[in-house]
Amino acid sequence: MSRSHCLHRAGTVPAGVARRVVSVLAVAGALLAAGCGDSGAGAGGSGAGIGQTVPGTGTNAGALAVTVSGAFPVSGNGELTGRPASVTTVGGTRRQVTADAAGGGLLHRIVVEYDAVSGTVFGVTHGWGTVTGVFDAVTQCFATVTVAGQQACAGVVVDPTRGTVTFGATLMRGAGSFASILSGRIPFTLP
User: Is 100 helix (H, G, I), strand (E, B) or coil?
Assistant: First the structure.
């Protein structure tokens, strides 16, 4: 199944928009992957792991609380709940937090790539959809904007010693008019 098919469900996204989504994701992945290894999903990954898992299947304890607002398509708006995120090592001190959550009747995945020493955020990806593994929309922000149409990450704070990601009305953009604003907190267990 092609990545274009995963982002384009019959009758929901015009084919031209799906191609633009794939193009933006390819550029974003290439930019982030240039400085890191490939964990397979989200910011800095190859996209091979772009699928979602059912919320609550992780091994961490605690709660995730993120509000999505200003989303387009509006189906992405909602109060997200789920278990704390998992963390993987991408390479060196680079880490990736992956949070799966449910909200507004949809599955959501938020991926944050950061430096484990300084807490510097390299990029954030947010996707949502009705079917596991298929996103209706994908939005992103980056530490350094290098291509027209990309959104700079603002209001994202990673505390690597406490194991938290905090979003303060963080604007995310995707292909075409895809957008979302994240506010709230994602706890994670340190690797």
Answer: strand
Number of domains in the chain: 1
pLDDT single digits (tens) 44-91? 333 333 344 333 233 334 589 999 999 999 999 999 988 889 899 999
Tell me which amino acid residue 191 is. P
Of residues 86, 93, 105, 107, the one with CA closest to residue 41: 86
Give residue 127's identity as a one-letter amino acid code. Answer: G
Residue 31 to residue 117: CA distance in whole angstroms: 21
| Domain of 9, in residue numbers | 3-187
Q: Which residues contact 56 (CB under 8 A, 6 or more apart)?
A: 82, 83
pLDDT digits (tens, 9 = 90+) for 134-175: 788 999 999 999 888 889 999 999 999 889 999 999 999 998
Name the pTM for this structure: 0.69
Nearest of 34, 38, 61, 65 to residue 50 by alpha carbon: 38
Rg over alpha carbons for the chain, rounded to the nearest Å, is 15
Q: In this structure, what token pair is assigned to residue 54?
A: 């059912």
